[in-house]
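Sample pair:
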Amino acid sequence: MFCLPVVVARTVSWPLADPKYTIQRHREHPMKTGLSIVGVSVWVVSLLLLSQPAGGGQVGGKITGRVTVDNVPDIVMVSVDTDQTLCGDEVEDRATVVDPSGGVANTVVVVTGSPWVVDPVLPTISNKSCYFEPRVQVAKTRSVVTLTSEDETLHTTHAYDDRARTVFNIAIPIPGLSIERPLRRPGVVRVECDSHGWMRGWVYVTDDIAIVSGSDGRFEIGDVPPGTYELTIWHERYRGTAQTVTVSHGSTVEANFILR
């Protein structure tokens, strides 16, 4: 890409009145021309490398942290009144998934005011073993969610927005079907199964960078553009206080949350 300007520069540098002489000079000094091109190419590449931000080319900074609670809740079981052969006699209420050290899973952390730099993975809601998998996920506004099932029974994937209005209501009677539906507006989408009352899922639809905490409560958000942001937090059962963080090129900022 950088060789063409070098050849043109050498051509116009010779007397324009004698084009044959110009051609002859190129033929007589192929090594000299090649070395000039290589030298300029190395110079350009060096400038490009020097212009990269610190941190090995990282375009921004990183935010890491952990979401915890002070008191680990007891596991709550729910009695099953339908499809016991498939679902069992009781299932776990997964509204609060907390590890023994207090790490809270399924918590959404949002970098408010920082739009997505890289689009997140498109969400998929799967009916699996009488649960929605995953229970909590994030999605970009105006993206598409895929609905599917692995269970040999009728499930309905009934989604409501934060105004309690139906977003979609899809019956999936057999496993293997795959149906797509749009997520047109930002907000928290609650997902229920009309056939199995304990089944619950959530899709946090947002224009801003967001992530869901892992099973140990930890999260990591990379490539955040430099700036000062408010980190907001969402959980279906707990509440937490927002924090302000300042991100710079190649830096790592830690933000921990304690939910109540």
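The first strand starts at residue 61 and ends at 69.
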